[in-house]
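pls design
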């Protein structure tokens, strides 16, 4: 619904551009990123050992931006993806097309010489965390993404776990809790979405300080449509301080209901989904000096559930480093961990770790063939506790092409 509203608003903006043509700040730009990828991995053989370990996919992202005067603008990021393309797609070998809205919003900006204030409304990237800014293939030095943004947990937003024993009987990618909700087995929830949430955001940047406050419908762990806002409205906030040029430290957090409307009828009498929130806190750092750059995040999530006195929690960490060898070549690496924490249910049963630990290690390299094309390759070691072997490892290539389909300023 929100996407249709944004599309209608964008069309209205385009139709009025001619009337504002005398303003030098009027224009339209449409950057495009097109990518083709191939990978070799045993993940493709989890469902059927007879499947080929070799596959490929495509991805295209279009970023239309309309500037209407010195303050108003509109922006969108829409993705078309033929899976399996991303490393986390590879558990499903079927080739399928997906059309996904990453962002779609209108904004109003007031900018000074050293500061700016911006308000946005529409479908927004989560204000939690730092990696969503590097989701584009040309911005991401490697091929995969940090675990907290892609790894599904052994928890679901549309089911209620009965207790500790129920949690301990689950497996990644095959989750079926027994105390209410949508029946059957399915993927678990992802701590932080890389896709858009409907909402509004205010952000400030200036004098080495940046900050953002976001109100959304649904959680970064379970985005919902705007129609659910009365019951699922929640906040996310973040900010940072630039210690010196190239060195910034930041923090972010969120809190609000994450359980799906489908479980509302099985919650304890007198409670609603707002009594069982998800929360997250995180810290991030970015550093660059000469040919070197590095970044990383630490995050902790907690998912309050009806049958627990100590809610299940998850801690995730990653760090990545990039070294530019020549103007065309670079090498990069990322290491990350996802560690499920303790939980205690209403019967007193407890565990110090409700699911298996996960670690990932990715090494890669890139070559700019020209100023528009980047060829990347990487090998990822994924280690899931108690799952021996190399079936979850991935070796992949990507060819990324960037260009402007349209770039026009109107005077």
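designed seq:
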């Amino acid at each position: 619904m929100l996407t249709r509203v944004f599309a209608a608003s964008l069309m209205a903006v385009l139709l009025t551009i001619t009337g504002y043509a005398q303003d030098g700040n009027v224009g339209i730009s449409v950057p495009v990123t097109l990518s083709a990828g191939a990978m070799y991995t045993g993940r493709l053989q989890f469902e059927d050992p007879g499947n080929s370990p070799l596959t490929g996919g495509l991805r295209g992202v279009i970023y239309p931006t309309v500037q209407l005067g010195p303050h108003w603008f509109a922006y969108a990021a829409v993705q078309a993806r033929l899976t399996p393309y991303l490393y986390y797609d590879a558990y499903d070998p079927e080739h399928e097309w997906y059309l996904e809205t990453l962002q779609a919003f209108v904004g109003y900006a007031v900018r000074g010489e050293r500061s700016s204030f911006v308000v946005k409304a529409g479908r927004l990237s989560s204000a939690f965390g730092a990696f969503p800014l590097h989701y584009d293939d040309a911005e991401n030095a490697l091929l995969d993404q940090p675990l907290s943004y892609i790894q599904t947990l052994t928890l679901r937003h549309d089911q209620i776990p009965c207790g500790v024993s129920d949690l301990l009987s689950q497996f990644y990618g095959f989750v079926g809790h027994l105390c209410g909700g949508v029946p059957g087995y399915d993927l678990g929830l992802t701590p932080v979405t890389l896709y858009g949430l409907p909402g509004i955001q205010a952000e400030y940047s200036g004098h080495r300080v940046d900050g953002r406050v976001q109100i959304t419908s649904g959680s970064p762990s379970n985005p919902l449509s705007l129609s659910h806002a009365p019951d699922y409205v929640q906040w996310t906030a973040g900010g940072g301080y630039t210690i010196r040029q190239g060195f910034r430290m930041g923090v972010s957090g969120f809190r609000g209901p994450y359980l799906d409307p489908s479980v509302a009828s099985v919650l304890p009498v007198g409670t609603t989904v707002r009594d069982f929130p998800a929360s997250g806190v995180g810290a991030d750092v970015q550093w660059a000096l000469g040919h070197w750059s590095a970044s990383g995040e630490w995050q902790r999530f907690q998912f309050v559930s009806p049958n627990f006195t100590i809610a299940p929690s998850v801690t995730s960490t990653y760090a990545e480093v990039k070294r530019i060898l020549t103007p065309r070549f670079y090498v990069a690496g990322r290491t990350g961990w996802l560690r499920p924490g303790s939980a205690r249910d209403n019967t007193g049963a407890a565990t110090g770790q409700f699911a298996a630990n996960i670690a990932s290690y990715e090494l890669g390299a890139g070559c700019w063939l020209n100023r528009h094309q980047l060829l990347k390759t990487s090998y990822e070691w994924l280690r899931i506790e108690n799952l021996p072997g190399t079936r979850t490892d991935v070796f992949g290539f990507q060819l990324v092409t960037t260009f402007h389909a349209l770039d026009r300023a109107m005077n």
